[in-house]
Write a structure and sequence with these properties.
The structure is a single chain. With about 150 residues, this protein is an alpha+beta fold. The chain has two helices and five strands; from the N terminus they run αβββββα. Strand 1 and strand 2 form a beta hairpin. The model has no long low-confidence stretch (mean pLDDT about 75).
Length: about 150
């Protein structure tokens, strides 16, 4: 009579199945986590855009420093995932471009994940268009808002 238990072959088969499933699931999970991190930067860029518009309404020009908008990047989330760079404005101060640059692991941030670009940059302009790239996939072209279509 054979003892109740698993043979070495059965255990190897189960372990190999788990290995294959993990190799398929982990990269997709990392990409999803990176998209969540990216959404944080998109929300913050949107808030900075609104702050720039308010600043222009008060002063007549867009700001050239994030600090003049009352923005302190250390208060964002407690994590060091993105650098928020000072706005780039034209000489007349009528347009701006605010950038968020993703840190790589060399700056202490978690790795971006399989297939993603380290240190990618996002941009937002005065019209609210966000551009950049996420995990080697360019963002879709911005769609006009419902008020702009009419």
């Amino acid at each position: 009579r054979r003892g109740a238990g698993f043979s070495l072959l059965e255990l190897l088969l189960v372990v190999s199945i788990f290995g294959v499933l993990a190799s398929l699931a982990i990269p997709q999970f990392l990409k999803t986590v990176e998209r969540v991190r990216l959404s944080e930067a998109i929300i913050i860029l949107g808030q900075l855009r609104v702050a720039e518009i308010v600043h222009k309404a008060q002063t007549g020009k867009f700001s050239k420093k994030l600090t003049s908008l009352g923005f302190d990047p250390t208060d964002v989330s407690g994590s060091a995932l993105f650098d928020y760079l000072d706005p780039v404005t034209n000489p007349l101060g009528t347009t701006f471009d605010i950038r968020a640059r993703r840190h790589g692991p060399n700056r202490g941030a978690p790795a971006v994940g399989a297939g993603c670009v380290e240190n990618y940059v996002l941009h937002v302009d005065q019209a609210g268009n966000i551009s950049g790239q996420d995990c080697q996939e360019p963002f879709p072209e911005p769609q006009p808002r419902s008020s702009e279509r009419e």
